[in-house]
User: Fold this.
Amino acid sequence: MATHALTPATSTYSRGRLYEWLTTTDHKKIGIMYVINSFVFFLIGGILALVVRTELAQPGLQFLADEHVYNEMFTMHATIMIFVFVIPMLAGLGNYIVPLMIGAPDMAFPRINALSLWMLPLGGLLLISSFFTGGTAAAGWTSYPPLSLDGPLKSPGSGQDLWIVSLILIGTSSILGGINFLVTIFKMRAPGMTLFRMPIMVWTVLVTSVLVVMATPVITSALVMLFIDRNYGGHFFDPFGGGSAILYQNIFWFYSHPAVYVMILPAMGVISEVLPVFSRKPLFGYKAFIFATAAIGALGFSVWAHHMFTTGSVFLPFFSLLTFLIAVPTGVKMFNWVFTMFRGQLSLSTPLVFAIGFLTMFLIGGINGAFSASVPVDFALHDTYWVVAHIHYVLFGGSVFGIFAGLYYWFPKMTGRMLDEGLGKLHFVLMFIGFNLTFFPMHQLGLEGMPRRIADYASDAGWNDLNLLATVGGFTIAASILPFIWNVFISLRNGKIAGDDPWEGNTLEWATSSPPPPYNFDHLPEIRSERPVFDARHGRSGH
Amino acid sequence: MPATGGRDTEGALINVTADTHALTPIEHSPMASLAHDVRGGISNPILGMILFITSEVMFFAGLFAAYFSTRANFVDVNGVKEWPPQEFASILNPFSLILVATVILIVSSVTLQMAIWAIRRDDRRGFLRNMAVTFILGITFLLLQAYDYSLLFHEGLTMGSGPFGTTYFTLTGFHGAHVFGGVIMLGVVLYRGMSGQFSSRHHDAVEAASLYWHFVDVVWIILFSILYFL
Assistant:
C-alpha cells in the first residue's frame, strides 16, 4: 500500500438495527429504503393494473362494480406507478450510487436526504388511504379540470384532495432530492473527478435533477391552484367561473413532459453503465452521450403542448417540430449503445439481458412516439390505446427494464451477495414475453379506434381477442415478478459472496467493499478517466 | 481494515480527502474533513439555497403564468373585458397601507444586508441589532398584510370573487406564506446569533437566509407592480 489507511472512528450503535435504519442519514441505507419503498408501491400499482386488465379481458362489466370504480383503478395505477414507483425508484438508485461513483463519502445534505426519503411513504400512504375514505381520485393521473373539480358529476369527496396533497408532498421530496444531487455532484467530487470524467449515470442524474428543480415546482403551483378551486371557491380552472381548463393542461404538462425525462434519463444512465461493463468496451462516444443528455433535458422544456394537439389552442407546427427534434439526441444515444456492444465481448449476464430488453423496447417506444408527434396522425390516435402502448413501451420497456438492469447490476454492491442468474433470466424471459403480449396488441387496438380509459367496449367491435391477449400478458408480467422476489429472498441468505468487484466494473463504486462501509472509501484509485477502476486494474496497457 | 482497494495494484493511490485540491497523497487526514468541501468557491449550503430559490422562482412562475392567462381571458358577466373588473375597479389602491408595507419590506432587505456586512467584519453587536430590526420589520409586514386582507374582505373582495379575487389572494397569499417562512428563518438566525454561533468565517446560515429574504422581497416588488400598477 502506497499510503496509510485512514482509520475512522466507527461508532458502534448501542441502539437496535431498526432504530438505526429509521434514523439513518447514510445515503446507502436511504437509497436502499427508497428502492424498497418504491418496490412495494410497484406491487400495489401492479395489482391495480391487473384489476384493470381483468375488467377489460371481455366486453361488459363483469369484475368491477361500476365504471367509477374502474376510473379509480386506472387513475391510481398510473399515479402510483409514475409518482411513487418509477421516479422514486430511480432517485433511490441514484441516491445509492451517485456518491459512490464520484468518490464522495455521502450526499451533500444527509439529513435533507432522509427528509426526502420519509416524505415518500407518507405521500404514498396518503394516496392509498383514499381507498378507505370514500373513494380515490378518479379523474385520471392527469386530473384535468373540470373533471377533477368539486361537483356532483365531477370529483366530489376527499379522494381528489388526498391525491393533490400527496403529489405535492412527493414533488417536494423530489425537489429537495434534486437540489441534494446537484450540490453533491457539483461540490463533493473526489480529487481528479472532473465533470467530463463522471460516469454517465451521474450525468443523467445531474440533468434529471435540473429538470426536477425547474419543473416540479410548476406542477406544485398547478396542484395548489386545483386545491384552491376545489376547496376555497377559486376560479382558476373552471370555465363556468371565468377560469380556463386549458390553463391547467399547459401548467400540468410543463412539468409532466420533463417528468417523462426524469423517468427515462437515469434509466438510460443505468444502461450506459451496464453495456460497457458487459461488453468489455468503453462507452462509444462518451461526450456525445453527455451532450445528447443535456439536449434532451433542454428540449424537454419546449415540447409539453404535444400532449394538447387536439385542444386547438396550441401552436401545432412549433411543438410538432421540437418534438421531432428530440428524436435526434435520442438517436445519438441509440447509436452510442449499439456501437458500445458492437464487436464487444458480450457476457450475457442478467443485467446485460435487461439492458438489451431496454434497448429493443425503448426503440419501439421511440418509434411509435414519433407517429404521435406528427400532428395529423396524432389527431387520429389521440386518447386511443395507441397512446397507452406508447407510454408503456417507454416507461415499462424503457424505465422498468432499466430499473431491473440496475437492480441486478448493483445488488451485489448493495448486499455483498450475487443474485441467482437462472432465476434472473427466468424473470427476464417472462417479463419480456408478458410485456410484449400486453402492450403490442394495444397498437392495433389504438389503430382500430379503441379509446383509453373505458371500462367496457362493444363485443362486436372486434377488440375481444386482442384485449384477452393483453390480459394474459398482464398476468404473465405479474408472474415474472415472483422469481425476482424469490431470487432476492434466497440470495440474501445463501447467495454467492460477491466480493468487491464481481463484474469487473469501471466506476468507483467497485473500488470499495460490498457493501461499502458507512464512509464509503478507505482509498480511492487515481482518477484519470471516466473508468478509474478499469485503469487501476489494467494500468496504461488498457488504453 | 475492510477489504477495499483490492485491485489498486498500481500503487498510485491517493487518500480520500477533499480538503485540498492537490492530487498528491495526503496522510492522516481527519475523517471529519471528508464531509466538507473547502476547495473554495461557493459553499454547499449557499449553493443549496440558490437552487432552492430557483425552484421557488419556478413555483411563482406557474402562479404568475396563471395570473396573466386568467387576466387575458377575463370577461365579466356583462361581457365587458376589463381588468380589474368594474365592481372592484378601485379596490386596489397602491397609495395606501400597502405602500407602507412595501416600504417596510424593502427597508428590511437593506437592514438584513447591513447585518451581513456587520457579521462579515465580525461586528456581532451590529449584526444582532440589524437582524433584530429585520425580524421585527418582517413581522410588521405580515401584520399589515393581514390587516389589509381584513379591509379587502370588508369591501367584499374574497377568494371567491371571480378570477380577480382568486388570483389576488393566491398570489399575495403564497407570497405571505413565503414571508412567514422567511421570518422563521430570520428568527432562527437571530436566536443562533444571540448564542454567538456566527463569525466572519462561519455564517453560511446568515448568508443563506438573507438570499431567501431578498428573493421574497423581489417577488413582492414584482407582485406589487403587477397587481397594483399594471
Summary: Chain A touches chain B through 75 residues (CB under 8 Å). Residues 51 and 73 of chain A are 7 Å apart (CA to CA). The beta strands of chain A are 523-525.
